[in-house]
Write a structure and sequence with these properties.
This protein has about 210 residues and is of the alpha/beta class. About 45% of the residues lie in helices and about 10% in strands. It binds 6-O-phosphono-alpha-D-glucopyranose and magnesium ion (MG). 6-O-phosphono-alpha-D-glucopyranose (G6P) binds next to helix 3. This is Beta-phosphoglucomutase. It holds the Pfam family Hydrolase.
Length: about 210
Amino acid sequence: EIKGFIFDLDGVITDTAELHYRSWKKLADEEGIPFTREDNEQLRGVSRRKSLELLLNGREVPEEKKLEMMDRKNNYYKEFIKQITEEDLLPGAKELLDELKSRGYKLAVASASKNAKPVIKNLGVEHVFDQISDGYSVEKTKPAPDLFLYTAKQLGLKPEECVVIEDAEAGIEAALAAGMTAVGIGPEERVGKAHFRYDKVADINLDDILA
Ligand code: G6P
Ligand code: MG
C-alpha cells in the first residue's frame, strides 16, 4: 500500500534544471569548453562533481582548479535561485502536492542538491513537506538508492510504500534500486525505465499510479 510520495526537486517541482544549465554554460564559455543544451541532459540529477567531470569530458584539470570551478558554478547558481518565487513552480506541481496532502499521504523532497532548501523556501512550499532531504543528507548520490532509502526512513515508511517522482535517469535508477515505485517525468530515452512515465508533471494521473 502506497503511503508516501518522494519528489525530486530540480526538473520536477521547478525548472532549476535550466538554471543549473545556464550556470554550467557560463563556466564552460569562460573556460572555452564547448557545452550545449544537449550535453546538459547527461547532467540531470547528477552531483556537482560528476557534472563537472562530464563537462570537462576527459580534459585534465588539477584538483584545486576543479574546486574553484565548482565553486564558481555554484556562485552563479546561487545568484539565479535568489530570483525564484512561487511563480516558478512547474504547472501542476502545487495542485499535485495539495491533492496528495489532502488525501493524507506523507510528502518529501529528495534532491541531490546542496541548494535544495533555499529553493524550496523561495517556492513557498516548505510547509507542505514532512521531510526535506538534500545534498547534505547522505554520502552516495543517485543512482545509488541511499537518498531515497534515507528519506523513507525519515518518513517512517518502508521502501515499497513510497512513490518517487523523478526527471533524471540517475534518479529513476536510484528509485528502482531502492525498491520504490518510480514515476518518470520526461522523454522515453531518459526515464523510460520508470514504472510510469509522463511528459510533464501536470500530466500525472494519480489513479493510474495508485491502482
Ligand atoms: C540535482 C540537480 C543537478 C545538480 C545536483 C547538485 O541533482 O538535478 O543538476 O548538479 O542536484 O546540485 P548542487 O546545487 O549541490 O550543485
Ligand atoms: Mg531532477
